[in-house]
Amino acid sequence: MSSPPHVLVLPFPAQGHVVSFMALSHGLVEQGFRITFVNTEFNHGRVAVAMSDEGRDAAGRRIRMVAIPDGLAPGDDRNDLG
Q1: Which positions ≥6 away from 48 have C-beta within 8 Å?
Q2: Model pTM greater than 0.90?
Q3: Angle at 55 (CA atoms; ends 53, 59), nearest 5 degrees
Q4: The pLDDT value given to residue 38
């Protein structure tokens, strides 16, 4: 038996992008895909809290969450794109 296709999801680190890509990820999981969702450390905690059962979708399948640094200090303005 072959392994399911694996998708790396890397949204732009803005709220609308993260939410939309998470919805896409859940849809892909329901179709049998394995998902690795990469997010900034700043957004990772917010997404993890919003997900039920530590990253499992409604059917119990897991989305692997990976956090990477964004290079900004905790008090920096993450909305300043300039």
Answers
A1: 54, 55, 65
A2: no
A3: 70
A4: 93
Q: What is the pLDDT of residues 3-41, one digit of tens each?
A: 889 999 999 877 788 889 989 998 999 899 999 999 888
d(CA 63, CA 37): 7
Range of the domain at 55: 6-68
End-to-end CA distance of the chain: 49
- What domain count does the chain have? 1
25 is a domain residue: yes
Q: What is the DSSP letter of 60?
A: S
- Tell me, yes or no, whether 77 lies in a domain: no
